[in-house]
Design a protein that fits this description.
With about 400 residues, the protein is α+β, with helices and mostly antiparallel strands. The chain folds into four domains: about 35 residues; about 170 residues, Elongation Factor Tu (Ef-tu), domain 3, CATH 2.40.30; about 45 residues; about 100 residues. The chain has six helices and twelve strands. The N terminus is likely disordered. Its main location: other.
């Protein structure tokens, strides 16, 4: 082989090698450019529309024994705190019971006033006064009668004494017989005994009736006295009547179902005449004037989420048109399992029902509230801008 041919072959090999090296370098550069990931600007997650706070299922303590008599609201109505939502059966009897208890309070108040003013025993005092007056009249009449009988006995004794003295003198003179003198003596003794008897009867009548009068006057004093114990008893009866009113007011109030807070009636679960639904209550209430989207953010993305980041929310199935905006207000402190699932992917091979997520609460801007107020629990897709 000639020298110039060998030289040509060598230059060809060198050029080929150089070309391969350059081509490989270009391939490596292109590969590096292709595999570099695009910068992440947002975290996307499924969520649902929720009102501020919780949806309240309004019920009553004894739901299984209660029936609804009236429903005073409609679905969609806004209600104020303590507004009556429904009335249970039996309220008419409860109102009558309360009126009866209030009447008893008025009665006991009057009784207490009578005791305090001493009028509670007015009739007894009048009867006792009449008894005393009767005894005094009896004492006066019987005293006069007994005194007259004693006066007669006293006069009879004086006459018997004179007769006895005269006959005793005549007997000593022999003018009359001793028998006549003895008769005068016996008459004198009888007159003395009669006087003693009449005197005793008079004294007994006075003593007995005066004692009765004193006893009845003492009783009258007790009746006219306002004793503290009587006032206390009357006051306790009044307090008992007032407690009965409080109890019956509470029972009546329990028959009136009131809204615990301002909100909107989302659904009525118990109709008129029905027993109160023990699981769903009578109505469901929520604060729909302040709406949120609660997104289930994957555990692997939660480190990118910060309070205040802007979020864009869109409906998964056309519940509302366009996008609505909001800001991250709360990030849950616990990790849980996914509860929401896109219906289009529920049967997908990559579906993981046990995936771990964190609830991120996004306050929706107020201008969108009217648009979504009636869409509680609607499935949405949330896109959180993490570049802020």
């Amino acid at each position: 082989m000639k020298k110039w041919q060998i030289t040509t072959i060598i230059w060809g090999i060198l050029n080929l090698t150089s070309g391969c090296t350059t081509s490989q370098a270009n391939i490596n550069l292109n590969s590096q450019i292709a595999v570099e990931p695009a910068p992440v600007t947002a975290v996307v997650a499924l969520g649902q529309i929720e009102p501020e706070g919780e949806v309240i299922r309004l019920s009553v303590p004894n739901a299984q024994d209660s029936r609804v008599n009236q429903i005073l609201v409609k679905e969609g109505d806004f209600v104020q705190r303590n507004q009556i939502i429904a009335i249970l059966q039996g309220i008419d009897q409860l109102e009558a019971d309360l009126k009866d208890a209030e009447t008893d309070v008025s009665l006991q108040q009057a009784e207490l006033l009578k005791v305090q003013q001493g009028e509670a025993k007015k009739a007894e005092i009048a009867a006792q006064t009449a008894t005393i007056n009767r005894l005094k009249a009896q004492l006066k009449a019987e005293t006069i009668q007994k005194q007259a009988a004693r006066n007669i006995a006293d006069a009879t004794l004086e006459e018997a004494q004179l007769t006895y003295q005269r006959r005793q003198y005549l007997s000593t003179q022999g003018a009359i017989s001793i028998a006549d003198a003895d008769t005068a003596k016996r008459e004198l003794a009888t007159a003395e005994a009669t006087l003693m008897e009449r005197t005793a009867e008079l004294d007994k009548t006075i003593t007995t009736l005066q004692a009765q009068i004193l006893e009845e006057e003492a009783r009258l004093t007790q009746l006219t006295e306002i004793r503290p114990v009587d006032i206390e008893i009357a006051n306790l009866r009044l307090q008992k009547a007032k407690i009965a009113v409080i109890q019956r007011k509470a029972r009546l109030e329990n028959a009136k179902v009131r809204a615990p807070a301002f909100g909107q009636i989302l659904r009525i679960n118990t109709r008129i005449g029905e027993q109160v639904n023990t699981s769903l209550g009578i109505v469901e209430i929520a604060r729909t004037d302040r709406m949120f989207a609660v997104a289930e953010v994957a555990e692997t993305d939660i480190d990118k989420i910060r309070l205040g980041q802007q979020a864009t929310i869109s409906s998964e199935y056309g519940g509302f048109s366009g996008d609505i905006k909001g800001n991250v207000e709360q990030i849950a402190l616990q990790i849980g399992k996914r509860t929401l699932q896109d219906a289009a992917n529920t049967r997908g091979p990559t579906t993981d029902d046990n995936s771990r997520v964190i609830a991120v609460k996004i306050r929706i801007d107020p201008q969108y509230n009217s648009q979504i107020a009636a869409l509680t629990y609607m499935l949405v897709r949330v896109k959180i801008d993490i570049n802020q």
